[in-house]
Amino acid sequence: MADEFLTLTLDTGESQGDVKIKLRPDLAPGHVERIKELAGEGFYNGVKFHRVIPGFMAQGGCPHGTGTGGSDKPDLQAEFNAEPHVRGVCSMARTSAPHSANSQFFIVFDDATFLDKQYTVWGQVVEGMELVDALPKGEPPREPGTIVKATVSEG
């Protein structure tokens, strides 16, 4: 089976380009299916990165741009795995409840192995990490970076 990729076209305010994320259904089949479903429906198009912490991670996927919401789909069962949270890893955000991931996700800037086995890793950035690095910082950023478009492809 060919690898699948999620491509996020990002607008950082300074530049625009594609971030290519290798999907990892071997680690989190339910979460990968949700990401693909939401991307296919256009859910992520126009969504902001509402929480960007230097040296830690960039979080997006809230339709309100505030971190307070998700899709109208049911929350996911946790698929915690042993994949380490290192630079470029994509993982699902959630509340303190383990089975509360829905549509919000984060991309790790630097090693954050304290998150290991507590959040569901579902992908790895393979191209365009410099665009993630360029996202405006803040909680929330004054002028947040935006996902212009999210698409899934084989490659």
From TrEMBL:
Residues 13-155 form the PPIase cyclophilin-type domain. It catalyses: [protein]-peptidylproline (omega=180) = [protein]-peptidylproline (omega=0). InterPro entries: Cyclophilin-like_dom_sf (IPR029000), Cyclophilin-type_PPIase (IPR024936), Cyclophilin-type_PPIase_CS (IPR020892), Cyclophilin-type_PPIase_dom (IPR002130), Cyclophilin_A-like (IPR044666). SUPFAM superfamilies: Cyclophilin-like. Gene3D superfamilies: Cyclophilin-like (2.40.100.10). Pfam families: Pro_isomerase. Coiled coil: none annotated. It comes from the Bacteria. Keywords: Isomerase, Rotamase. Its EC number is 5.2.1.8. GO terms for molecular function: isomerase activity. The keyword Transmembrane helix does not apply. The keyword Isomerase applies. PPIases accelerate the folding of proteins. It catalyzes the cis-trans isomerization of proline imidic peptide bonds in oligopeptides. Belongs to the cyclophilin-type PPIase family. This is Peptidyl-prolyl cis-trans isomerase. It comes from Novosphingobium beihaiensis.
